[in-house]
Amino acid sequence: MTIMRVAIIFKLLPEDLRKEIFLLVGKKILYLSTEIYEFKLNKPGNHENLKLKNIPKDILETLKDEVAECSIFATVVDKNRMNNDIFNCQIFWPPNQEPKLIIHCIQKKFKERKCKLKIMIMITGYDMNFNFDRPDFNIQFKVEKNDWNKYGPIFLKQKSNGLNGVIIKYFAKKDLISYMENLKTK
Q1: 70: which residues sit within 8 A by CB, 6+ positions away?
Q2: What is the pTM of this model?
Q3: 3-class SS at 27?
Q4: Same domain, yes or no, for 79 and 41?
Q5: Which residue has the higher pLDDT, 41 or 172?
Q6: What range defines the domain where residue 134 resides?
Q7: CA within 20 to 30 Å of 144's CA: 23, 33, 109, 165, which one?
Q8: What are φ and ψ of residue 146, in 5° steps?
Q9: pLDDT over 60 (residue 54)
């Protein structure tokens, strides 16, 4: 007896029916992990790009599938909680690439040191493989997307206000055009 390759019957359904089933089943937590990373503060304003090292291959494949509509959430804390430093975590996820984290440390006064960061990562999306063995099977998510950049890129202008502080002005695209026109006339 020979075993033939298993095909997922779901993929044989028409696309509109598949989408309807995904909406009924809902988005799930596909991956949840807490990881420890070393972070070196060696220069003020420096940041660290971290590759997410422990994500299973099947989840990485699901991330590449646009139909899965995956979202990645991450949070970071300093395990040692020294000096009241604040850490910022951004997800950098260019198309057709694996996601990375960009970590910044915000300090009142720069101090060179090594940090042990505790990073929690959660990936949500439609489960393309219909894995019903997950402990969170009954939990569904709806991820709302808000377009905060409706006016195009935002440009920053920085100047000193004479009080040892910095004023940062931001310009949406239409404001930038009028600002640049004013500069030409001066």
Answers
A1: 30, 62, 63, 123, 124, 125
A2: 0.66
A3: strand
A4: yes
A5: 41
A6: 14-145
A7: 33
A8: -120, 130
A9: yes
One domain for residues 84 and 137? yes
User: How far is 107 from 128, CA to CA, in rounded Å?
Assistant: 42
Interval 72-83: pLDDT, tens = 989 888 887 766
Q: Residue 124, class by beta-carbon neighbours within 10 Å (0-12 exposed, 13-18 middle, 19+ buried)?
A: buried
Q: What is the pLDDT of residue 170?
A: 45
Distance CA 89, CA 83 (A): 18
CA–CA distance, 117 with 90 (Å, rounded to integer): 14
Are 101 and 118 in contact, with CB atoms under 8 Å apart?
no
> Is the confidence at residue 157, as pLDDT, over 50?
no
Residue 88 shares a structural domain with residue 179:
no
pLDDT of residue 66: 86
Whether residue 164 sits in one domain with residue 114: no
In contact, 101 and 89? CB cutoff 8 Å: yes
Q: What is the pLDDT of residues 99-125, one digit of tens each?
A: 888 888 888 888 888 888 889 998 988
Please check whether residue 100 lies inside any domain of the structure: yes
Cβ-proximal residues to 104 (8 Å cutoff; 6+ apart), any chain:
47, 87, 88, 90
